[in-house]
């Protein structure tokens, strides 16, 4: 091995890449290719045939436009909410928490020690009609006497926001934590106000974290189905719910596969637009 | 498939009262499949059984039901020498089916000798129609004579060649007494403005539309496009009006107890197991639906081992312990009498041991409804999917 590497110095990076590439090939590319093959099939379970059935795609977009729009809307609102909630929090942890930083970071990650499903189920109790939150909101007349939080759009978007919060918080924290405090001192020396220093130094330097956090939140949120299934009603059904029921209930594998591809394609298209706006170097760090 | 008959099997067949192997069954055995009494595989010393959660007697439920002694699984092992790997891995018919269908499609076994599947959705039909269930060895199941007449010839398996009931349950309406008075008609459930936004229905088409069809005066055992659309219309209107809060799988009992739901379509056994005195259950005035979980032997399973177990649970003495331990309805003749000997009070509970009068109000779903892709599509569309 040693002499091989010595003779073929150029091979080292490829050898180092090999495990990762192999991993992606086996667990991403091959299933993706299979999904693509399945998405162009026709027929009824279990007798599907490959027939280049492109109408699966057009039918999917036509029949489920509402759920697609809703998914991106919910994911977008949740991503924004995550950003607004996470930024001040991790800013405080990075710059003000001092020796307690790791403890507070642990608090952010702590919910992840519990499985996704159980975390979401907990919200069923928190937001219950006879629960404390609804009771309080009724008392202060924010909700009318038979108003509810559970089984509403608010509950679904809140659930998504809660569940993906750490994906937004952690990347922003990492980028804030790397900022050299002397840069802020320099800005102040040059007569920048605190606001100006934040806008011209801190914010631009944390932008890669914001971009990474946005992607890590938005992409899985758009395909989520747990929150809509548990906290919503049919009026909140997202595209993930449609795909799930097509796979599990209807046994319509080609339909489910083609919808998955459409979802992937739409996310990719949005990613490209986003990259155009924020600059692709930020997207890749 | 192994057509060889083991010595053990021969002995069992002898015990089953088969005095000699007739020529046809020998020929069938040589042919390796299809014949009457033909068994697949040999008798194993381990049985792999997939079932729903909380669906069998355990030391705890036996204690609660006032039963003493080992569980029925332990009794089976003592009696037959067959160990049971009992998996509580069926959480929903559809998810279980999705997990195993890949292997079944390749003609491969799934590492199970018995799985259960409910007759109120399409998946039981998929196992049977695709030849993914193996024929039972009735010679090893003399106790099949204890199967109640009502279950002897279901439309999906008219001669009970592939399936046998595990438990049944009744579809009805449950309500939270603290939030509403008795709800005894489907119309009241779906239209009473007092219940707006606090009503649950099932996400399974057969159960929900079955109850609505009965209310409409239509026969759920014989569904036409017209009766289907009429029932779907009722649900769609209630959904649009905001009467229905959500379409539930088997997770409606908690919201009902918590007060998020005032009333919901509900299964008898769930309400019995919930054991909450403020939650009441009734068969709707126009009748209820009865569904049955069926045991079947999937591809690759050992028919003799599975058949031996099925024979064991069709002994009324064992069936009574199972029913008392799980609180669901048995399809074994004489189970109520045996249960009364063990625990007269529990055996008088009509949710687990319904009276003849209650059973007379029960109807079954039309299995052709479940394989109709158009119905499925419309049903999912009402749920926003």
Molecular structure report:
The complex is a heterodimer of chains A (285) and B (385). Chain A has 285 residues and is mainly alpha-helical. Chain A contains 14 helices and two strands, in the order ααββαααααααααααα. In chain A, strands 1-2 form a two-stranded antiparallel ribbon. Chain A is globular. The two termini of chain A are 34 Å apart. Chain B folds into two domains: 7-20 and 40-168 and 291-353, Periplasmic binding protein-like II (D-Maltodextrin-Binding Protein, domain 2, 3-Layer(aba) Sandwich); 170-290 and 362-382, 3-Layer(aba) Sandwich (D-Maltodextrin-Binding Protein, domain 2). In chain B, 39% of the residues lie in helices and 17% in strands. In chain B, strands 1, 2, 3, 4, 5, 6, 7, 8, 9, 10 and 11 form an eleven-stranded mixed sheet that branches. Chain B is globular, with a radius of gyration of 22 Å.
Instruction: State the end-to-end distance of chain B.
Output: 42 Å
- Report the strand count of chain A: 2
Q: State the distance separating the first and last CA atoms of chain A.
A: 34 Å
CATH superfamily of chain A: MetI-like
In short:
The complex is a heterodimer of chains A (285) and B (385). With 285 residues, chain A is mainly α.
Q: Which secondary structure elements does this structure contain, and how are they paired or packed?
A:
The complex is a heterodimer of chains A (285) and B (385).
Chain A (H helix, E strand, L loop, with lengths): L1 H6 L4 H28 L1 E2 L6 E2 L4 H9 L1 H32 L4 H9 L6 H11 L5 H8 L13 H25 L3 H9 L4 H29 L3 H6 L7 H10 L4 H26 L1 H4 L2
Antiparallel strand pairs in A: 1-2
Helix pairs in contact in A: 2-13, 3-13, 4-8, 4-10, 8-10, 9-10, 10-13, 12-13
Chain B lengths: L6 H9 L7 H9 L14 E7 L6 H6 L7 H9 L2 E8 L2 H13 L8 E5 L3 H8 L3 E2 L28 E14 L9 H6 L7 E4 L2 H12 L8 H16 L3 E5 L4 H6 L4 E5 H7 L4 E4 L5 E11 L4 H11 L2 H11 L8 H8 L1 H4 L8 H5 L1 E2 L9 H10 L3
Parallel strand pairs in B: 1-2, 1-3, 6-7, 6-8, 10-11
Antiparallel strand pairs in B: 3-10, 4-10, 5-8, 5-9, 5-10
